[in-house]
From TrEMBL:
Pfam families: NAP
Taxonomic placement: Eukaryota, Metazoa, Chordata, Craniata, Vertebrata
Bias type Pro residues, positions: 354-363
Protein name per the record: Nucleosome assembly protein 1-like 4a
Organism of this sequence: Cyprinus carpio carpio
Keyword Coiled coil listed: yes
Length: 363
């Protein structure tokens, strides 16, 4: 379920905060609104009453998203048999029947000329006869997805690729009823020479309630923290570090010795060792790293896992690019409107006076 208004980015934590008040931040924001102090006292009281109604609405919205989370958990159980069969086909554990493999693409049939169709049929027949050379399942299924999706390809290093060839499945699990809201990404690997783990996990903790200091910023569940897992690397196989050799000369004796030490290096598998937010929330680089991590986790859950085969074929990438183009066009329109707005100055609005006549706009 891809909900656009669900927030998957990190929020700043801490920082310089204004003096505490017995009123929620939303109420204080009203007082900072231009010309709010010019309103009659009786009108201010009514505005505060409207704010309290808005707060009640935000609390109801939070409950709504909690029920949505439960609905996702319920339907995850219905999807699972389908995803299990996808895993078995990809891994070569089962061979789909002829009926299950039927998929007619009218566009492909129209584009192929008759002689090319005959040639393709002959090559397919020859390939079928070479049964000993048949690949198992769908080779490099998940690695291909990683390479195709820009967000994932940016994390991928050359030394990660041989390991990801052993990746058999990626699944998501939702927290149980009564537990704090969260979801867990599980990366399932076949036995390999790099680490002994069969499953690597990443837990994303979520919050679905209005912030006490700024309740009106609530727009749905947001990821607030994440936890990775320990990877049990085989000796000399840890791709998140590299070995550096240095020569050291003894000041007194003049003898030289060679020392080795491990230094971190870029790798997708750093994904399972996430950074933690700074206590004061003042580290912008750290907050950006967290925001990117949360976005990737959300993308795995909402896009990659449910539509894996479409990212493998590239069809989902076309859909994503279409969304990006639409967003860009909308942004350009907003920018044009802003520029036009700068040319007009209607002066400050005084709520104690009669408002100017409203323009009639076509809907």
């Amino acid at each position: 379920m891809d909900r656009k208004n669900e927030k998957s980015e990190a929020k700043g934590k801490g920082g310089n905060k204004p003096p505490q008040s017995d009123k929620p931040e939303g109420f204080l924001q009203v007082e900072r609104t231009a010309n709010f102090q010019l309103l009659p006292k009786i009108v201010k009281r009514r505005v505060y009453a409207l704010k309290r109604l808005q707060l009640q609405s935000a609390n109801i919205e939070a409950k709504f998203y909690e029920e949505v989370h439960e609905l996702e958990r319920k339907y995850a159980g219905l999807y699972q048999p389908i995803f299990d069969k996808r895993r078995d086909i990809v891994a070569g554990a089962i061979e789909p029947t002829d009926e299950e493999c039927e998929w007619q693409s009218d566009r492909e049939e129209e584009e192929l000329a008759e002689d090319l169709q005959k040639k393709a049929a002959l090559e397919e027949k020859q390939a079928d006869s070479a049964g000993a050379d048949d690949p198992k399942g769908v080779p490099e299924f998940w690695l291909t997805i990683f390479k195709r999706v820009d967000m994932l390809a940016e994390m991928l290093q050359e030394h990660d690729e041989p390991i990801l060839k052993h990746l058999q499945d990626i699944t998501v699990k939702f927290s149980e009823p009564g537990q704090p809201m969260s979801f867990t990404l599980e990366f399932h690997f076949e036995q390999n020479s790099y680490f002994s783990n069969t499953v690597l996990t990443k837990v994303y903790k979520m919050k679905s309630e209005p912030d006490a200091e700024d309740p009106f910023s609530f727009e749905g569940p947001e990821i607030i923290d994440c936890e990775g897992c320990k990877i049990d690397w085989q000796k000399g196989k840890d791709v998140t570090v590299r070995i550096v050799k240095k020569k050291q000369k003894h000041k007194g004796r003049g003898t030289v010795r060679t020392v080795t030490k491990e230094v971190p290096q870029d790798s997708f598998f750093n994904f399972f060792s996430p950074v933690k937010a700074s206590p004061d929330g003042m580290d912008e680089d750290l907050d950006l790293t967290l925001a990117t991590d949360f976005e990737i986790g959300h993308f795995f859950r909402e896009r990659v896992i449910p539509r894996a085969v479409l990212y493998f074929t590239g069809e989902a990438l076309e859909d994503d690019e279409s969304f990006e183009e639409e967003d860009l066009e909308e942004g350009e329109e907003e920018e044009d409107l802003d520029e036009e707005g700068e040319e007009e100055d209607e002066g400050e609005f005084d709520p104690t006076k009669d408002p100017p006549p409203a323009e009639c706009k076509q809907q």
